[in-house]
Amino acid sequence: METYGRHEYPGRLFIVEGVDGSGKSTQIALLRQWLISEGYTVFFSEWNSSPLVKKTTSRGKKKQLLTPTTFSLIHATDFADRTEHDIIPPLKAGAIVLADRYIYTAFARDVARNVDRQWVRELYQFAVKPTMAFYYRVPLEVSLSRILTGRSELKYYEAGMDLGLSNDPAESFKLFQQRIVNEYEAMVDEFDLTVMDATLPIPEQQRRMRKLIRPYLQSVRRIRTSAQDSAWAGLAREMRPSHADLQGRHRG
Amino acid sequence: MTRLEFYGIDAIHLKERDEILPGRLIVIEGTDGVGRSTQLHLLRPWLESSGYAVVDTEMTRSELIGAGLKQAKEGHTLGPITLNLFYATDFVDRFESLILPALRAGFIVLTDRYIYSLMARAIVRGADPLWIRSIYGLALIPDAIFYLRISVDDLIPRVLQRGGFDHWESGMDMKMGGDLFDSFVNYQMRLLEQFDAMAGEYGFEVIDAVQPVERIVEQLKERMFPLLPQG
Predict the structure, then answer these.
(1) Which of chain A's residues have a Cβ under 8 Å away from the Cβ of B135?
(2) Which terminal CB of chain B, N or C, has fewer other CB atoms within 10 Å?
(3) What is the interface pTM, i.e. ipTM, of the complex?
(4) What is the pTM of this model?
């Protein structure tokens, strides 16, 4: 079994991290669009989305069966399934893999839930080390107002209600998020996270992200060279006579 | 009293809470088809008739993940790392929601397999031994581990009698041989190697599983008796 830092694949892995409301998902979605338009093969993987595990996780959450340790393990199981299907094979094939949240989400959330810091790091030893890991740093007031305005209800585990920090979900959420932010900040040096200023205008953040990624793309294979080529290719396809046309011509 | 001792990190923080566990944690280990459950079925009534409250537990029975794990094993997309973590989640769920509460309440916990089978299976499936050990490092060191030992040659007729070779018990997820039988032999041989390697390290009490069922249960009772709370 390969462990963290030992994997060597021709592909690239870029991941985004940050608290809810930091805008990281917006940034990685924009990055994905750009990479596709540049002709790269892009694979996208989202936290907590394994078809094998998702149902068990949501059942555990709904019935409140999860302790901090099983919460941690079930998310690691989900991540393992995505590592074995959505991350390692495309990286081996030379694709660009983008992940919205990665192991650092688990480290931040699980430790905020009092899971042992070292134990959870060892649990994720099988993970591939990202080419670059972006951390979208945002003042807590900003992310909280983005999340809490217009939201009717916070879910039990999402608000960290299992920790018993407060009986008020919004208050519990704030305290829980603060703990998560503290963990992220401590990981910046530990895992060499690239800190991004998430208070800047969206296009400016995106411009910076693309600039940082570009040097790592040099030897990555493209299916097309650029968006322009692909536009031409699309046009050429449209102008080519269809199968039906050809058959009609034969008959005529 | 089960002592608050762990193989690795006390990730559940039992020491911090000064837990007292007046129960006993007794493990029966051994490979597939060796006769563990037969022994447990004989031990439970013996303990209960002697006045001890008993809880038993076995793999894949967790409320959280039992059904999901079964479903995942029926498909064909389950990779080895994911499989290992499914089992780890199953174990920790049973550990926290069943084993620990029973030990706190003074029960005798009889467990059909513990972390040793899980580690052996994981290592045979290519897991990094350090990785898998660190995960299961949160497990309590049991009061006793009885290991029912058998050779592959002696195991084969039992498994046939019981209904034949099972897909997972033959390691067919890794195709360890040209057919079910070859894969079974290779897989079980490698599992037994792991068990034997662990026997010394973890202090297994080895019991020869080739003996008649009655002889084995007598030996188990004899060795278990001094471990039980007296008076």
Answers:
(1) 119, 122-123
(2) C
(3) 0.95
(4) 0.92
